[in-house]
Amino acid sequence: MESLPSEQGAVVRRIVAQHRERPGPLLEVLHAIQASLGYVPDGAVPVVAEELNLSRAEVHGVVTFYHFFRRSRPGAHTVSLCQAEACQSMGARALAEHAQKRLGIEFHQTTADGRFSLEPIYCLGNCACSPAALIDGRLYGRLTPEGFDALIAQGTPAA
Amino acid sequence: MSTTVYVPGDAGALSVGAGEVAAAIADEAKRRGVKPNLVRNGSRGAYFLEPLVEVQTATERCAYGPVRAADVPSLFAADFLKGGTHPLSLGLTDSLPWLLTQQRLTFERVGVIDPASVPDYVKHGGYRGLERALQLSGAEIVKAVTDSGLRGRGGAAFPTGIKWKTVLEQTAREKYVTCNADEGDSGTFADRMLMEGDPLSLIEGMTIAGIAVGARQGYIYLRAEYPHAHVALKTAIAAAYQAKYLGADVAGSGRRFDLEVRLGAGAYICGEETSMLESLEGKRGEVRVRPPLPAIKGLFGQPTIVNNVVTLTSVPWILAHGAEAYANFGTGKSRGTLPIQLAGNIRRGGLVERAFGLTLRELLYDIGGGTATGRPIRAVQIGGPLGAFVPPAHFDTAVDYEALAVVGAMLGHGGIVVFDDTVDMARMARYAMEFCAIESCGKCTPCRIGSTRGVEVIDRILAGIDGERNVRLLEELCETMVQGSLCGLGGMAPFPVQSALKHFREDFRARV
Question: Do A128 and B341 touch (CB under 8 A)?
């Protein structure tokens, strides 16, 4: 397993220390690590395990169970396209095909220049404004292929 | 007094430009040297009118929509701050046809108040339920909830009062109130709207539950896909602590109730209550075998209430107005009101709270206006990804738990996703199995393996390979999953597949 650069190790230890006393802290710890580092590096697993007195297998098991936790560095912008039924009824599949072609990647991949990661997501609760997407934490509704291109062309969707 | 302008801060409204509209209003006001009081309210649930801007005039609220940022200068020119007429004028908010036909109890304050303000909440009837609850014994609170006929609005429709009674009767070192805010069903957003538009009513509902059963700690398990609701909840919880409605001395009663939000991490299965408890404990969200029920042995092994957002948010109204007032709404064993969500390919989509008993046809055509694309409705899926597809032949069915069960459907969390006649039902069936395969927790074989095999069998049908035999195999596989799965994911994922085979067999036959 890759070892963690010392500055990341310090971040991880500080986060664990903040949450250690809370009941059932592991998910909170992983969320905080991902919020700080952008992902949960494999090297963080033994550190978290040791600090929380869990086995590495337990921590690895939790990291890999949840779709939200990433094990690799994301692109500068994360684009999540809703692929659930309500969005499908309004063209989400076609939009996803368009997005994959436009960015030249498939779901769960990051562009070679490191600018965009593309993820499927299953329901953003915006089902009366389908199709929906979440880009860098910002929600978009009634998204068309043209609208998608305009957002991507900006490179950095407005915060 | 300055005029109050309401621009929703609801995620759905923001997704179609409410943030830009609010900024444009602030800019234009500054340019003109006026200082309206800008409030970011929840959504009225008429998403076809979002962004919906409201102005509080001397007596009424006037509505304008859908407003784009570019419309803002002309709104000022039309003196909208005094309710002036503009091409986007919708008249008085209270007279909007969308709201006139509804019976809003649980949603009575959503879109009306400032979600972050305790004084505004109290001014609009908030904390009257808690006040009443603090005059009652735990058993009396539970009785009120039981008598109201309230059933779990998350999907399982279990009588809420019975669940609470079980927790009340336990003797334990600690008890917990947990809110299942893992609203993962496609086509549903009632929980999200409540948490963003009136989070204090959820906090009040959970506090009442804690007072009733003797729990001192509450957790809201919120899905990570709802970042806006997360902010709204954290803000409202901080405000409730500040106003001493949470903490060591709830509303001066000497009773303690603490509340915390915990984030999920993108696992649909964590909407299943035992899986949610595992996740709250910081573990993999694998389903627990029942019994024991969570009411007896739940979070950290202690007696635990697990209720959905809409369920808990309905409680303050019931306590404030009385069980009978709530039970007077509805039909048969479906008492009270139901927040229905019209979603997908629908002209007028959004949130409709009505007493149980409306027919699907009234909802889809009279209220929803048919499809957004203008084509005929071919199917609706009710109750999320595990719900059956319902054909137009059944559109005269009433929307209540029992009536829908008669036609092989289930109400679930009250979401209705509309599809027009371009939908490929064999492909939707494949998606149902694929979704189950992606989201299965892996604990039981029928769900973990069955869903993957289901995708493969449907792929063979779609490829025209041995169609008749594979359709029979698919039907058998569905039966195995329904009968043999540990929880509702594997046990219900076949429902959309079976209903597609039953009502839309021609979509499979074309390839046979």
Answer: yes
